[in-house]
């Protein structure tokens, strides 16, 4: 009875707590928050306070004075800074509840498939400390499969490749469970690092994380187009010359970015092949017929679907709104807990 009364005054949530972005789904409303997972902190005499969260904080990355630091509290899909993650969750939850602190939500939060028990406990405690009364965890590839419209409860094989900011989860799902899965820490952040390292090595120039991300979005590809006319135009890029120390500008081409990202693409391909090798024959036949679905922000990388399809000989499709697949799937579970409760942790 008491739990039922609490439900009347709470707002149940589903959160995709990603390395790059945090998305929040509110029951009966849909997605209401989609902001970068960044927190700006002001430090003074052993204390610290939150200055900004989300998009406003991301604008400060690499541009803050000594007493202010912009932090990404999630790394490789898990909590790297517990206190800051808790503050970020509290900010988003309070924002949704219009600062009604007495409201205590029930929450479904997504986690990478390869998360350890210690990391799982940290996520749960951060959510509880942020003001949530009941926490369930859902593995990101399962949520992505549901959000991509795959029939995960049926006795047939569905393969999902969820490429986020910190991790790539590759999984085969059947009968509301993961039959086999591979999680690797090669995803959007690693691609940004690869671009930074390439520019430093080939052009003696240092660029920041935000610039590398912009290059990845504008020029990023992993497959050479069939026609030279389809090649993306070069991009003007500014940074610091490592030899003279002064600002420098160069033109970066799409083939250069493709070379920089080649190792990351190969890592994702190897994970897909490993998962297929571990898949039972009957489910392999289903996947061969139905294809592989790409989700997450990494699904937008040009040519990734073509490369995977050509290398493994199976059709590859990009989910509708791949960046939203995980939070949409978690939201669908939230809306129909009776049906999906068995897949929650």
What does this structure look like?
There is one protein chain. The protein has 345 residues and is α+β, with helices and mostly antiparallel strands. It folds into three domains: 2-37 and 72-143 and 326-343, ATPase, nucleotide binding domain (Nucleotidyltransferase, domain 5); 151-186 and 263-320, Nucleotidyltransferase, domain 5 (2-Layer Sandwich), CATH 3.30.420.40; 191-257, ATPase, substrate binding domain, subdomain 4 (Actin, Chain A, domain 4). It is 38% helix and 28% strand. The protein has helices spanning 2-9, 55-58, 82-96, 117-129, 140-147, 188-203, 209-219, 254-260, 262-277, 281-290, 304-312, 325-335, 337-340; strands at 13-17, 21-26, 30-36, 39-44, 47-53, 68-71, 74-75, 78-79, 105-111, 132-139, 158-163, 168-174, 177-184, 205-206, 235-241, 247-252, 292-295, 316-318. A five-stranded mixed sheet has the order 3-2-1-9-10, with helices on both faces. Strands 13-12-11-17-18 form a five-stranded mixed sheet, with helices on both faces. A hairpin with a 2-residue loop joins strand 12 (168-174) and strand 13 (177-184). Helix 5 (140-147) packs across helix 12 (325-335), helix 6 packs across helix 7 (209-219) and helix 9 crosses helix 11 (304-312). It is flat and about 65 Å long. Mean pLDDT is 88; it is low at 1-9.
């Amino acid at each position: 009875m008491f739990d039922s009364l609490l439900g009347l005054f709470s707002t149940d949530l589903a959160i995709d707590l990603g390395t790059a972005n945090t998305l929040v789904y509110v029951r009966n409303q849909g997605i209401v928050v989609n902001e970068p997972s960044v927190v700006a902190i002001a430090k003074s005499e052993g204390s610290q306070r939150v200055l900004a969260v989300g998009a406003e904080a991301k604008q400060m990355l690499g541009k803050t004075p000594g007493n202010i630091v912009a932090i990404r509290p999630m790394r490789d899909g898990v909590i790297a800074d517990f206190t800051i993650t808790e503050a970020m969750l509290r900010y988003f939850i309070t924002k949704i509840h219009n600062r009604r602190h007495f409201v205590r939500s029930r929450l479904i939060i997504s986690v990478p498939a390869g998360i350890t028990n210690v990391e799982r406990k940290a996520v749960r405690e951060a959510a509880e400390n942020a003001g949530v009364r009941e926490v369930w965890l859902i593995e990101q590839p399962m949520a992505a499969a549901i959000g991509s419209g795959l029939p995960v409860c049926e006795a047939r094989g569905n393969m999902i490749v969820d490429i986020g900011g910190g991790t790539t989860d590759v999984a085969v799902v059947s009968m509301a469970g993961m039959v086999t899965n591979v999680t690797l820490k090669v995803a959007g952040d690693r691609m940004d690092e690869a671009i930074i390292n390439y520019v430093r090595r080939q052009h003696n120039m240092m660029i920041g994380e935000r610039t590398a991300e912009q290059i990845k979005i504008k020029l990023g590809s992993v497959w050479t187009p069939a026609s030279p006319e389809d090649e993306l135009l070069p991009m003007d890029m500014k940074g610091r010359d490592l030899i003279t120390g002064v600002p420098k500008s160069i033109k970066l081409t799409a083939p250069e970015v493709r070379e920089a990202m080649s190792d990351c693409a190969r890592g994702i391909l190897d994970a897909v092949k490993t998962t297929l090798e571990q898949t039972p024959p009957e489910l392999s036949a289903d996947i061969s017929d139905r294809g592989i679905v790409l989700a997450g922000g990494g699904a937008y990388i040009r040519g990734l679907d073509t490369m995977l399809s050509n290398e493994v000989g199976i059709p590859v499709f990009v989910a509708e709104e791949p960046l939203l697949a995980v939070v949409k799937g978690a939201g669908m579970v939230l809306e129909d807990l009776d049906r999906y409760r068995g897949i929650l942790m």
